[in-house]
Design goal:
Order of helices and strands: HEEEEEEEEE
Distance between the termini: 94 Å
Shape: elongated
CATH topology: Porin
Number of domains: 1
Radius of gyration: 37 Å
Mean pLDDT: 80
CATH architecture: Beta Barrel
Length: 242
């Protein structure tokens, strides 16, 4: 028997076994796949402060039920005038799930509307002019909304109490004051809007509101008028959330 041949034959497999672990250790190991952490949904919870700008449609309803009879009876009329509105808001929201609940207060100034004061005209009293308007408005409102999409969109309804100071006046003929009346009024306000969270702090939105300040009596006894004021508002908003 050729011992050297047997020895060589045995050495080859043994070398293979010895080298196999080393080759396996030298093989590159794949890194484990890392999953991205779940994206955190934005939160509407927090307080904010901001500003708004837009347009307001003021409604003035004027009725003289106590006026002396005329060829066409007591005078009554109504008109609408558009004015600029701008102001600020402050409030707080609380989010639970997809629902957002909030409380907001705002104050706005209004320019004097165009074409709000109207004339009685012929054949009754040519030159007579009547009307009323408001120069500022404040509200305290609750808000209830629902988020959608990626959570940065909010649709909401709102309603509460509104405050203003109404100025009413009437003239019997050019330059002859019939009455000049101002009164603080409290009414109701309701509406809705849409907001978009641009970042964790900045929010833009649009809002529509309607406020009704009810009816009141203006002018001296025997020549008094019943006045009713309403305001419809459309505006854009920008808020900073803390």
């Amino acid at each position: 028997m050729n011992v050297s041949k047997l020895t060589g034959t045995a050495i080859v497999p043994l070398l293979g076994l010895a080298l196999a672990p080393a080759n396996a250790a030298d093989m590159p190991v794949k890194a484990p796949l890392l999953k991205a952490p779940p994206k955190l949904m934005p939160s509407w919870t927090g307080c904010y402060i901001g500003a708004s700008i837009g347009a307001a449609s003021q409604g003035s309803d004027y009725n003289e039920p106590f006026e002396a009879p005329s060829p066409v009876g007591p005078f009554a009329g109504d008109n609408n005038g558009t004015s600029f509105i701008g102001g600020g808001q402050i409030g707080c929201n609380y989010q639970t799930g997809m629902f957002v609940f909030g409380l907001e207060g705002d104050y706005s100034g209004l320019t004097k509307p165009s074409s709000l004061y109207f004339s009685q005209g012929a054949p009754v009293d040519p030159g007579n002019s009547y009307g009323s308007d408001i120069s500022w408005m404040a509200t305290i409102r609750g808000r209830v909304g629902v988020t959608f999409g990626d959570g940065t969109n909010l649709l909401y309804a709102t309603g509460g109490v509104a405050f203003t100071d109404v100025h009413a006046s009437g003239f019997e003929g050019v330059g002859r004051p019939f009455h000049d009346y101002s009164s603080s009024r409290t009414g109701w306000v309701a509406g809705g809007g849409y907001e978009k969270m641009l970042t964790a702090n900045w929010i833009i939105g649009i809002e529509g509101l309607f406020a009704d300040f009810g009816s009141y009596t203006s002018g001296p006894a025997g020549k008094s008028a019943i006045v009713h004021n309403t305001v419809g508002i459309g505006r854009a908003r920008l808020s900073y959330k803390f």
